[in-house]
Amino acid sequence: MMEQQEGKGNRFSLWMLAWPIFIEQFLQFLLGAVDTLMVSRISDNAVAVVGFSNQLFNALMTLFATVASGAGIVIAQKIGSRKEEEARTVAIIAFNVTAAIGLFLSLILVVAPRQIAAMLQLPTELLPLAEVYISIVGGGMILTAMMAVLSTAIRNTGNTKGPMMTAIGMNVLHIILNYGFIFGELGLPQLGLTGVAISTVVCRLLATLVLLFIFLGSFVRKILPRDFSVFDRRLFKEILVIGWPLGVNSASWVFSQLAIFSFLSILGTTELTARTYMNTLESFCFLLGFSLALAVQIQIAHLYGAGKTKEAYSAVFRVLKVGLPLVIVNAFLLVLFGEHIMKLFTRDQDILSLCTVLLWLNLLLQPGKMVNMAIGNSLNAVGDTRYTMNISLIFMWVVATGCSYLFGVWFGFGIVAIYLSMISDEYIRGVLSYFRWRQRKCLRVKEADLQREREYEKDDACNTECTPSPAI
């Protein structure tokens, strides 16, 4: 039994959680970079459509992130408190609800892709391409939903290697299919952006099947087909209590980014394309930092469930000591070599000039993002999700989005003003989250609960010992 517990503890160590997440995230970044590079061979307009569409998909994903994210934290907490059966039930409930939401979104995107793109101010000349891409990739939104909840559930059991290996296979296949469809090689027809969309959906379908197989065996008792009819109202409520603020928080960020992309569309195709290329490059900066932040969320949720509040409190500071230097170094490397990398994607001098300026601003942006990722995830892990939601609603919309429109569009300072607005938002929320974590609010509540439980058990034991035996 002791060896089993030791193995489980090692499974939830920061390093064991973080390195597979990093490899998975790096491969996802590589997928995006190669995807953008390959699509750029079609046209810069195609790149703009892919970037815009991905922002739309990310925005819609927040509708099922409420359940998936909340369930992930509850699963880690339940496993930490040795309630494996409840963790299993939470995972099943989350899968069913998330798949239903994903199916609903798929139907909407298949029916009205052009209308949605036009409503979000996509330039008219890009609408035909957007209609095709959004209808195909968006039609597979149910696969995206299932992948999200399956990966989250599997990771929060301590198995971060499963999603990593799935990502490896998905990335390799996606690159091969992209190459075939874009250039008409490997016996595949030359379909351009349509082929890229088909490639994306095929890879997600296969990845979903693999993740589902891993998911069925991720708990002490294997999940069988008949178990998918299980529903527990109390556990679903636990998911929503933690999950709905997470969903609102995530929605606030993604929809604010979508609004900012709309502002860039107003500025012009050059600005929109530059931002799409910068999204690809920026991902390089915080890959390891984000992996550490996600790993520490799982670790802290597990420690919190086990009642180890002191260890949970100090975990986030260890992550920041490692993550901040990594992010800064990566951002500085981009400043040095970013222009050369950009020339792999485009030769448009206007786009290259814009990106050169944005790379310097990125050096200022990334440390703020790292602090938000680490401390924000830690607050979420202990259930303080309403606080992160509240500051997101206020500052993302007033500072990041509002100031982006005011200074970037209204006053005409352009994309530089939009970046400065986003930077200000990251640092404000980072500082507020830091002071909130230092207060240890949720950790103190947990400590008080544990103290009451110990006192109750002590009184119960005393009563048992002091009760006279019945006369024979």
Please provide a brief summary of the model.
The chain has about 475 residues and is mostly helical. Helices cover about 85% and strands about 0% of the residues.
Instruction: Report the end-to-end length measured between terminal Cα atoms.
Output: 39 Å
Count of discrete domains: 1
Largest sheet: none
User: Given the helix and strand composition, which structural class is it?
Assistant: mainly alpha
What's the overall average pLDDT, rounded? Answer: 82
Order of helices and strands: HHHHHHHHHHHHHHHH
Number of strands: 0
Question: What characteristics describe this protein?
Answer:
472 residues; mainly alpha; 16 helices; 85% helix; globular
Characterization of the model:
This protein is mostly helical and about 475 residues long. The protein has one domain (about 1-450). It contains 16 helices and no strands. The chain is globular. The relative contact order is 0.11. Residues about 1-5 have low confidence and may be disordered. One of its GO terms (cellular component) is plasma membrane. It is found in: Cell membrane. Keywords: Cell membrane, Membrane, Transmembrane, Transmembrane helix, Transport. GO terms for molecular function: antiporter activity; xenobiotic transmembrane transporter activity. This is Transporter YisQ.
Blueprint (SSEs and pairs):
Blueprint: H1 2-11, H2 14-40, H3 44-80, H4 84-111, H5 113-119, H6 127-139, H7 141-155, H8 161-183, H9 193-216, H10 233-267, H11 269-305, H12 309-342, H13 349-381, H14 385-410, H15 414-439, H16 441-466
Helix pairs in contact: 2-8, 2-11, 3-4, 3-6, 3-7, 3-10, 3-11, 4-6, 4-7, 5-6, 6-9, 7-9, 8-9, 10-11, 10-14, 11-12, 11-13, 12-13, 12-16, 13-15, 14-15
